[in-house]
Structure formats: C-alpha cells, structure tokens
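Protocol check, entry for the methods section draft. Step 1: assemble the input record (protein sequence plus ligand SMILES). Step 2: submit for complex structure prediction. Step 3: store the structure tokens unaltered in the notebook. Ligand used here: 2-oxoglutaric acid. Step 1 record:
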Amino acid sequence: MSALFPASDFTTNGVAVFPGAVSEDALVGLRKEIARLVDDFDPSGVTTVFSTDEGQGHARDDYFLTSGDKTRFFFEDGVLSETGDLLVDKHQALNKIGHAMHDLDPAFSDFCRSYPFANAAAEVGMANPQLLQSMVIFKNPGIGGEVTPHTDHTFLWTEPQSVIGFWLAVDEATQENGCLWALPGAHTIPVKSRFVRNADNTGTVMQTLDATSYPDEGWVPLEAAPGTLIALHGTLPHRSEPNTSAKSRLAFTLHCIEAEAEWSDKNWLQRPDMPFTGFLANPFPK
Ligand SMILES: O=C(O)CCC(=O)C(=O)O
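Step 3, stored output:
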C-alpha cells in the first residue's frame, strides 16, 4: 500500500490520503446507485454519437461539451464496432459517467455533499468549496484504459488556480488493476497545457504551455483500500495505467473549486443555468 500522505502535508506534497474516509455501508449504497444508473442507461442513443464514423465527430464533441450539467455516459476506446454496435456488455463498456450527478440525482447529491468530502476539503485548506463535477470512473477489467499524466487545472481552469480533485476508491485499487500514480511535490511545476473550447465553440483544443515532459522519476503508486479518499491539488501531475487484470477498479471523483475564484468561460465545462453550490456544511461538526 502507498506511503501515507497526511492532510497536514498537503501544501508540500499536493496530495493527501484519507484512509477509511467512506464507510463500507456508504460504499454499498454508492455501488447500488452506480449500478442503477448503468441499468437505466440505454446505450443505443449514445452508440451513434460515439461511432467511429468521421461524420460523427461533431456530435461526439457536442455530447461531451454539453455534459457539464447532465448525467452522460462515455465509452472506453475499442468497445464499438465500425457501425456503432456495442461489442461488449454495457456494464463493461463504460469509461465514465459524468458530470453533474451531484446536482441532478438526489442520492449522489446527498453522498457528495456529506461529511467525508466536505471535511477532506476543509482539511486540505479549501475555504469556500463549490462542487464542480462528479464522475464515476470504471476502469473495467481488461478494458479500462490508461490515463496519461495530466493535471486537473489543465481541464478545470480558474483564476487564481483553485481546483482540487477528490478521488474515492470504491473497489480496492492496486498496481495490478490500475491505481492512481502521482508525483508528490510536483504541483509547484507550472502546468504544461490548457484544454480550452475552440474559437467557434464547436470543439476543444489542447494548448501547449510548456512542451517538456514531467520527470520519469519520483512517481508514487497511490494504492488504496475501498473507502480511501485521495485529495489531489489541481496542479499535481497524476496518471493511471490500464487495468489488464481481472479485478474491477471502480472509483468515484468529485472536483471542487473556490467560490471566490473566477471560472473561465474557455473551459469545456459550462453550466449556464446551474450555478455551483457548496457542501451541506463546511466542514461538518466533529
Ligand atoms: O481514475 C483514474 O484512473 C484517473 C482519474 C483522473 O485522473 C482524474 O479524475 O483526474
């Protein structure tokens, strides 16, 4: 298991680990709600959007770009045939669900606004956290792909920088099934890219700010038992490897920003009719 990164050292490390933050009972409830979302999901409408046909590129971009205030389903690469048919069961085919379950779905809203996330946010120094996006991340056995090194500020830009990601292990995450890896302390390196909407708002562009790579040395596996919550500073590089094992590696993430920071209108995620809101308490009384 990974070295312990206490919240008290978050400013130094850019990562904090909260073992046992979410109870087994709450995890059982969360798994049930995730299964409900997938059971109710009709893939036929979405497979068209994700078919590999070149003509679908715009529809695919639009499906993503308008998902900031919706509950939408995103497939792994390689699970659709050339004609857009699903090659595996829908429960195995998904990469993630996002991005507004915390506002749209009462069960997810209650879970995201509750004690573990609110108190972790307070412990890593957030003053007035606002819930930005929620995601179920599947990384299914044999199908879940690599997540290349990146920082969350690249995708969720505020002025000043304020995003913090909260990553919850729903299943045990190990090096075998594709746990998170992070580069502790590297949140002090200026971010190397910025993901923005293109000029006519129909797609996105990755702007390179610094073409150098992150160092190969110093990466740490953040192996995590179920219920472990990991806080990642918005400028901390992190990544994960494909899940080539037979073991599921289900995770749930919540990203928060500071209310006082300015949310950029160049960001992919826009919620014109859904203002950001905070936790039920900030923090919860002990
Ligand atoms: O769950 C993973 O493997 C990666 C998640 C991640 O990088 C993120 O949410 O920013």
